[in-house]
Amino acid sequence: MPNYTLRCTSCGEVYSKRISYAKLNEQSCPKCGSQKKERVYAGYGFAIGRNKSGG
Ligand SMILES: [Zn+2]
User: Fold this and answer.
1) How far is the CA of 43 from the centre of ligand 1 (A)?
2) Sign (positive or negative) of CA dihedral 21, 31, 37, 39
3) Can you give the pTM of this predicted structure?
4) Could you tell me the pLDDT band of residue 45, with boundaries at 50, 70 and 90?
5) Can you name the residues that pair with 49 across neighbouring β-strands?
6) Which of 12, 3, 18 has its CA nearest to residue 38?
7) How far apart are CA 46 and CA 41, in angstroms?
8) Residue 23, Cβ neighbours under 10 Å: how many?
9) How far is the CA of 30 from the centre of ligand 1 (A)?
10) What protein residues have CB closer than 5 angstroms to ion ligand 1?
């Protein structure tokens, strides 16, 4: 299975899960339990700010 890095959009916690893509929505933050999250792409998501234009 692929390993996904996710970032909680509620508390900012970054965590990794080895799950199928279909299970992504079911994952909840290990810190606060929120299911609001976004994908973090390795070597890409940390350094840059979020840019809401486009999508
Ligand atoms: Zn959280």
Assistant:
1) 21
2) negative
3) 0.70
4) very low
5) none
6) 12
7) 8
8) 12
9) 7
10) 8, 10-11, 13, 29, 31-32, 34
In the beta sheet, which residues pair with residue 14?
Answer: 7
Query: What value does the mean pLDDT take over residues 29-41?
Result: 94
User: Hey, is 22 helix, strand or coil?
Assistant: helix
Ligand 1 centroid to residue 27 C-alpha, Å: 11
Cβ count near 29 (within 10 Å): 20
CB 55 within 8 A of CB 47: no
Q: 46 alpha carbon to ligand 1 midpoint, in Å?
A: 16
Residues 9-21 as b/e (b if ≥16 CB within 10 A, e otherwise) read: eeeeeebebeeee
